[in-house]
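EI: anyone free to look at a 247-residue chain?
SC: sure, send it
EI:
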Amino acid sequence: MRAQVICLVAASWFDSTLQAQPGAMLPEFDAALVKANHSGSDGGAVQMTKGSLTIANAPLTKIMGTAFGISEDWDAYLLAGPGWTGVERYDVIAKFQASASLDQVRLMLQALLKERFGMKFHREIREVPAYALVVAKSGVKARAAAEGSTGGFRRRPGHLESRAATMAELTDKLSQQSDRPVVDKTAVRGSYEFTLDWTPDELRNAGQAGASLFTAIEEQLGLKLEPRKEPMEVVVVDYVEKIPSEN
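SC: here you go
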């Protein structure tokens, strides 16, 4: 994990799957301020509330990743662009209708990058580092969900729980805990009850005992995360300017 601190108000931001093609017309913010940040600080934050998006002291890779729904931990794999985009930092303050969805706001941010930074991009399939979620030799230990159980996840650092979730849904949540995208290779159908507890890497690195995420998944759920390369869609930034246009 990187040292840079990123705060996300909307945890479901990266769950968005809506995509716009490079030449498509995009919705726009009602108002937006963009400026370079020369504070020299390593910290950064992305905060979204109804009607506003605030990005403070973030490298352009983070802003582009937010616009395309790419987690910060994956941008090295799923976002390809000039090297300076991971160094130069910017502030963004944008206003929009409170009724706008997360998908719409993400597209608005793409439009802002196009307008202020002249960003041009395309998408292509590349083999990238990932984790494949597979069934361990012990077999799946998670119990089948009880009939009528409601889905959704409850989570906190080192804990993930659901009364009824598919392997694909579990994979999505594991991706949010991982330094690489996770793909479902279990071929297991149906909904299951999941309870997973582990010690986050930052606590283990500080000397706290406990199972890693990889160990906990195998011991508690009968599943494994195998590192491998998988074909995935990558956003390739063909052109982007370092100095944004005037507000």
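EI: The chain has two domains: 11-123, 128-231.
SC: 👍
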